[in-house]
Amino acid sequence: GAGVSQSPSNKVTEKGKDVELRCDPISGHTALYWYRQSLGQGLEFLIYFQGNSAPDKSGLPSDRFSAERTGGSVSTLTIQRTQQEDSAVYLCASSFLAGGKVDTQYFGPGTRLTVL
Amino acid sequence: AQSVSQHNHHVILSEAASLELGCNYSYGGTVNLFWYVQYPGQHLQLLLKYFSGDPLVKGIKGFEAEFIKSKFSFNLRKPSVQWSDTAEYFCAVNARTGGFKTIFGAGTRLFVKA
Question: Do B49 and A104 touch (CB under 8 A)?
Answer without folding.
Answer: yes
